Amino acid sequence: MSKILKKMNQNWWIFPLLVFVVVESILVAISFVVGPILLAMVEPGLRKDIYSSLTGSSSGLLGFSLAAVAILAAFSPRVGAGVNRTREQSMAEARGDIAKCLLATSFLLMIVLVVSTIGIGIDTKGEGNLPIVSLVVAAAFASIIGLLISGLGVTLSILERNSLGVQTGS
């Protein structure tokens, strides 16, 4: 069990994808047992408006997360780190882990963007299309989790970098 936890700690990008799989499975199971849920219960006109809103929101967040990946990729260990070279290296690895999590989150945001765009055109019946609704909801929920994890990681990285600068006097 400790090996699994250690592996998950080293691979943050697993969390948003794991959340996606779990939520998708739960939504499909509930839909088969209870019937239409969430977006599937909403009238078609309102559902199209929701899909349009999700398309805009996910495209904005997708651009934000990819920009964050580019910024994280630009950071490298400080050249004159001296004594703190190993600490700088471990912080660089942590930023790489955050970038991987942001890339996984970007993938989920892309799913929301593409499937919502498709949903605008083909999800026109009174009862929502189960694959479209479940994919959109699960990917949106997992994207939120991924953005929260990545944001926490970026915050901790910035705090660590600032505390390192204070300790070394730079």
UniProtKB/TrEMBL annotation:
Membrane-crossing segments per the record: 12-41, 61-80, 101-120, 132-159
Source species, domain of life: Bacteria
Gene source species: Streptomyces ficellus
Keyword Membrane belongs to the record: yes
Keywords: Membrane, Transmembrane, Transmembrane helix
The protein's name: DUF2975 domain-containing protein
